[in-house]
Design goal:
mainly alpha; globular; single chain
Amino acid sequence: MATVVQIDSTRQTDIQKLAETFSARERLKSRMLRAWILAGLFFMVLPGTVLGFSNLLAISTHHGLGSLPAAWIQGHGHAQVFGWIGSFVLGIGFYSQPVRGKSVLRVPLPCFILWVSGVALRWFANIYGWHWQILVPLSAAFELIAVALFLSAASHHKLPELKSSPRLELWMVSVLLSTVELAAIVIFNFVECLRLALAGVSPSFPHGLDQRYLVLLGWGFLAPVVWGFSARWLPTFLGLAKLRSRIFGTALLLDVSGVLAGVSGFTRTAAILLALGAVSVAVALRIFERSKANAKTQGVHRSFPFFARITYLWLAIAGGMSLWAAFADHNGGIWGASRHALTVGFAATMVFAIGPRILPHFSGINRIFSTRLMLASLLFLQFGCTLRVCSEPLAYEGFASFAWKVLPISGIFELSGVLLFAANLALTFAFGQSAFAANRRLEPVCA
């Protein structure tokens, strides 16, 4: 009898040690994700939005690009897409990967250092021009290696699942497609940065090349990654009906075809395909249909379902304006408004809406610091984006001169929204209740 009791005690001790080890690994993963998120917030606020706002002020003052260096504009875009969205995607990607042995930080930490260093070097070289022939290709190399490390880490646990599963879920196909596009983007970026360095003329891409590169960034990477996570989370969070799989697959096919056409220089064909894809994905997700169940708004502001849905209205606007631009744009205003509707109206609004729900949880925090700050950030972002998308074509294309005065106002609202979002997440990490502590209450820190 004593022997049996001793064996049971040993088993309980072993189970307790395994539980403690698992908890320790989860803590490390959550802390690593916090590092990715904080880095993303830094690039979003300073090199991204603040630089973008200063560029916008200069453009509004001169009623056009004037003497504003193209490298500054491209540095702003690189910091926003790579530094902000890219950091969030890579961080969540590493967090989602199962950990084996003592490899919690073995790959994510070097990848994090390379990625952050690469984005920072690119921003510094584009703005200051100091030894850019060295820094620009070096930054591209760092980003390429970081993505290669991420893909290598992902392949070690994804491949066995693919063999055992007869068919991938469509949301996974969409996310994998965006990952492939990200790999293509960093390769494209590295090759072209080497060419820039060898030519020694300017740290910015030529206009025609930059236009094709933006198609890859916006519709090749941003759109499918948001579509994939939408298909994964929104049916549950919003209580939507079952995904229309065939239409979703068609939307992905239209998107890939549109990106290939855009990169190949068939601008009008690309615009038609991408606009159709934007409408198709909203139909597939049933995003504008009545919910079949109550939306899950615990821990976030009750307006969350509205803002999550409105992102796909912005996507349709982006597709429609790209179609308009392909046939009627003369000075870049319609193209600029279309890209802004895609990056800020669609992608950024989705991050602002769904981020407060998932990012604290993944980072080991129970809830977002303040649901009121969440609402305020979304409202400021929406108002600013609306002003920007409406006024940019009017100003650039010469339809209404007063629109030049509206552009800085739109930037002020967007900057305010970004600062509130960043502050809310920072306060969550600083003062939020840990999800690892036992028997902690689930109330938010601030109403």
